[in-house]
Amino acid sequence: MTAPVKNVVKLSAAPPQVKVAQEAKLQIFQSSDAIPGTLLLGTFDLKGPMKGGAPGGDPPATIKWKPGGANPLAIGIAAAKGITLAKSERAKISDQTVRAQGGKDHEDQIPTFAKLKGGYSFAASDLDDADLIGAAGVKGLQSVQSFELEIGGTKQRCCFLYPKDPQGDWLYEELTLKLSFTLHVPKVDGSGEDTWSVDGPEIKWATHEFTQDASVSAAQLKTALTAEYGNPAKSPPLHARDYGALFSGASPICAALAQACRDAASFVDGQIAAGAGFNLTANEVAVTMMCEGASTVIEQAIAAGKAPADLTFDGYGDLGIDSFVTRWRNDEGHLRDYTNATLAGYINANTHLRQTTKNEAGDWWITFKDLTLEESAFAVAAIWAWAKEKFVQDVADAAVMGNWTTQADQIPAHVQYFWTTIYFNTKFPRDTLNHRGIGYHDLRWLNEDDHATYSQMEKYNGNWRTATFRLFCATSGL
Description:
alpha+beta, 2 domains, 5-stranded mixed beta sheet, about 30% helix, about 20% strand
């Protein structure tokens, strides 16, 4: 986000008043090339002696734009002593929405000006302030994309506005919002009012879609992903894993692995009900398999010159699907629908199964053992789709998101991947989504990339796996 060059805006004046008015009305408007029309954001009633207003000079109050400082977005009214904010009204328009805050610092009490971004969730703008707070990571209006107006020591927050159905191709690109101000001062003789209008600052909200991923080299992207998801000052910093060679190498295992992921994704995607609001891709299956531990089995098999048929995988140690059989038998979600006949046959015949040792969450489950490469891909695809569906349902559930419900398929693919990872790997993902909001994705992992130390930390896992997913999609995608 950038601040304007000028921070004091001088307005052209209407004819001066003979006497001094004791009140005025300030209106603040927003416009953008991406959002149709000029929208009124708020109306603010001022009280006190409105001195000044000479032709060609300043109005009774000079509007100041104060970038940075204690508030990332702050507009102050520098006026004569005694002018106060008597009343304020944030615009509440039925066909407009407000946007949750996003960016690396969206949870900070005082976010860093340059790191703010628009978030992924929207709520109706005509809701009362209290109805916007308390769910989906929105702890106050400072968690909403907004600015703060200060007059005479009184502060009032005002929200930017978006269309009723805001998601679109433009949404996660860089967005410029332009403010303008109009000051209305009634004539003391009751014959009308004097009005001053001026263009205000432009606010640039940074991109969220990361459309540059495929346009830079792998080395450049790896550096960018470390800066986005980790802390470059740490040694080693969080980084994306590069699994591309496991899918494109000369070994027959590489081609078999790629085809297994494609076949598994195609099968499961075909089982997802129409209107479910999500799909499944081969990239998701491939990256999840590798991140969960299958990469080690495959690397060792390639080094030993083995054939695809020689590979076997354990559900817990190699695939991270330790709860699969237990959840299938409990008929959770649509897991049975996403499971192919071979895996269902193993469960029904009680073969290729074992009880896990106590996992990271302290649970005991029944999972698969001795699965082939193809069976492993189908198993990962099935339970990944089960986890993704839970996220899709929760992000659209007011019991979780309050008034910030969102359709998951309108969220960027890598953010969907982050949250599916949370649902795939953690015990209480619904509570995390309620408390943190979708923008939890944006927060960096500030410690070292140390899997042995941090493997049970949801944010660590979510960040390095999502960075890996983005790298794979951009450089080696299936």
